[in-house]
Design a protein that fits this description.
The protein is mainly α and 367 residues long. It contains 12 helices and 3 strands, in the order H-H-H-H-H-H-H-E-E-E-H-H-H-H-H. The chain folds into 2 domains: 289 residues, no CATH class; 50 residues, no CATH class. Helices cover 71% and strands 6% of the residues.
Amino acid sequence: MSSLSSSPSSSSAKKEAIFISSLVILWYSSNIGVLLLNKYLLSNYGFRFPIFLTMCHMSACAVLSYFSIVFLKIVPLQGIKSRPQLLKIATLSVVFCASVVGGNVSLRYLAVSFNQAVGATTPFFTALFAYLVTFKREAWVTYGALVPVVAGVVIASGGEPGFHLFGFIMCLSATAARAFKSVLQGILLSSEGDVIETYSCHRTLILKSEPRPRYLLQDLMFTFLLPGSSQSYVDILTFALPLEKLNSMNLMLYMSPIAVLVLLPASLIMEPKVIDVTLELGREHKFMWLLLFVNSVMAYSANLSNFLVTKHTSPLTLQVLGNAKGAVAVVISILLFRNPVTAVGIGGYAITVMGVVAYGEAKRRFR
């Protein structure tokens, strides 16, 4: 009897393990795939338009987010409740654009391996902005774990054969913008910060024989019978309702169109030859449009899989998988692009990764 009862549970555990493994594979392949395709298009293919490429990514995210939420119903559709909330989303979208464009620009000048090493310093910038913006302090042990994160990148920079100052500055700026966006997102879109205006209370006299007035859902009505009278009074307390916190999929749905509206004029102004060169490349290389399409779909897939992996795994598992993903991307990029690496560079990157692991562990233990 016990074997029969354990069979369904073991079967469901196997299905869950297969499902989570599939999500992780999708997450790795889409994240690493879009990174390598970006590098190939921007450095090796002659498509030197990082702003336009980012706009293609955001266009795909806008269309596919709408399809996934409205038709596939991956998550419930959440509406924007107020103009301040829309302004907050627009602010996040602009910061997000800056981080993605900066990362794509850096890929024109830096190897993917070094790009990933610099990107691994995100926890340092996140802790810095969290302190500067919200005055949130971590334990000294947590801050101490950030020392090898920064030291590793300094060592890797000194041992990078293809070091490019402008590319390094753009990559560092993109990493800082990504960290700033995560801090802003925590502040601007928290349920505590998004509240409809105000608290008020008023008292209304009504006759018992009269029909009770209807009040909005945010009005709490307390009725009290006046002693020795046919009247009663009503205290109506109007209170602030917290707005529903947007999940990352709905946030992407609203951020993507705003990003397209920002990136399209920026691309036409800062990359004036983008239309002519893109059409010319499309005529010369029959797979040009397919590469752009696959690259853009992968950009959305990276966001979708990140959301699903976050939803179905623990924070510790996510941290371990994220660290391993960066290392896998470095190895694959070196094998594909054959960019030269040195022992010093590899050592610096290893120190950074170990610092990131130590930082995550310190945050978990010393909350």
